[in-house]
């Protein structure tokens, strides 16, 4: 299992964090996700045999957030 922490600029509220958690929670290979709008951090635990960080980053960006 791999861990990644991304900074997602543009999270303004708990709803934004929930949107990210729900969207990533449905991605095959994601084991756990925690988004915090205050720190603008997204922590993801995932199966590296199924998924990579670039795909996770792309999913967050598809939601309208800037990953830096």
* Morphology call: globular
Average of per-residue pLDDT values: 97
- What's the tally of helices? 2
SSE pattern, N- to C-terminal = EHEEHE
Q: At the third CATH level, what is the topology name?
A: Alpha-Beta Plaits
Layout of secondary structure:
Elements: E1 2-9, H1 14-25, E2 30-36, E3 41-46, H2 53-62, E4 66-67
Antiparallel strand pairs: 1-3, 1-4, 2-3
Structure described in brief:
By secondary structure, the chain is α+β, with helices and mostly antiparallel strands. The protein contains 2 helices and 4 strands; from the N terminus they run E-H-E-E-H-E. The protein has a 4-stranded antiparallel β-sheet with strand order 2-3-1-4.
Keywords:
single chain, 68 residues, alpha+beta, Alpha-Beta Plaits
Fold and architecture overview:
- This protein is an alpha+beta fold and 68 residues long.
- It has a single domain (2-67), classed as Alpha-Beta Plaits, CATH 3.30.70.
- The chain is built from two helices and four strands.
- It has helices spanning 14-25, 53-62, and strands at residues 2-9, 30-36, 41-46, 66-67.
- The chain is globular, with a radius of gyration of 11 Å.
């Amino acid at each position: 299992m791999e861990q990644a922490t991304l900074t997602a600029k543009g999270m303004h509220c708990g709803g934004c964090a929930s949107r990210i958690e729900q969207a990533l929670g449905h991605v095959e290979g994601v084991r756990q996700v925690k988004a915090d709008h205050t720190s603008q951090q997204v922590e993801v635990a995932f199966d590296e045999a199924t998924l990579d960080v670039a795909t996770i980053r792309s999913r967050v960006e598809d939601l309208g957030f800037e990953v830096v």
